[in-house]
Fold:
Amino acid sequence: MYHLLFNLVFRRMDPERAHEVAFRLIRLVAAVPVLGVVVARLSASPSTGAVRALGRVFPAPFGLAAGFDKNALGVAGLRMLGFGFVEIGTVTAHPQPGNEPPRLWRVLDQRALRNRMGFNNQGSAEVARRLQRLRSTPGGRSLVIGVNIGKTKVTPAEDAAHDYAISARRLGAYADYLVVNVSSPNTPGLRDLQSVESLRPILQATRAAADEATAAAGLPRVPLLVKIAPDLSDEDVDAVADLALELDLDGVVAVNTTIAHDLGEGGLSGPPLLSRGLDVVARLRTRLGPEPVIMGVGGITTAADAREYLAVGATLVQGYTGLIYEGPFWAAGINKALARDAARGPHDPAGR
Structure:
């Protein structure tokens, strides 16, 4: 049914417009009590799929990657669809419109997306107010929410640490984990901040600001992760892993979109990322050891793809592009399959 709807309706619409329409529909369904409950029950994963990580219990290991809900407008609706957790953002310290349209394209023959959105969002102050309202309700407090933060486009690179700290100070008390995004290709100069010399002060300032926020709220320290690009060399991946260990980060999110394509401006997501994403996660696990969390993201379309990430060392997995092509129950299907694997046990060949 969804594939028919996609081909007859969504495929004919501008991709960004289709995203807006679909997202409004998700939020509308979640706001109708009976309908939202029915959909949530259809999407629910068995408790055997729960994962304990970052000091939290994630109801299921497969979550929504940053980029879909930039402003924390529909977290409950996205959880309703079966995602175990939702990472909002990327949020910047100050509001910004992002790049000029067109800035989102479907790559139909690869079931991929190309985007040059440019961190369009309402800014950390507005998103913090929205998360505060959400967290004031029992249902909102039950959600596992990651917050992905990035640099405001107009902020000079030398002031990046301060910019990230503003967002961390405003948002840290409402996040189950924070992600420092220095790997989007759509903000000029952002990926240069992945160098260890530039990244160290950003992570230190973000850590300090987040600690201020949680201490003021009487809350435990919020876990901090960094998100890296698939286009880093292996040596640079190792350097980021070493820095994560040096600064006692809680983990790494791997990977963001890739610029290794000839389709035009912007980063490519979806199946073309799978192979490199798996390689980076495996390398990180070897370098980091068993304790730090690794969120594997990039090219996951099926439960088998998610299993591959988990097999090479990911603690949790995320996706986004598959939701566009596979429909609203995509995440639920993956999490149910992973829960069945967990119920069988790690030594059952059928659960690999």
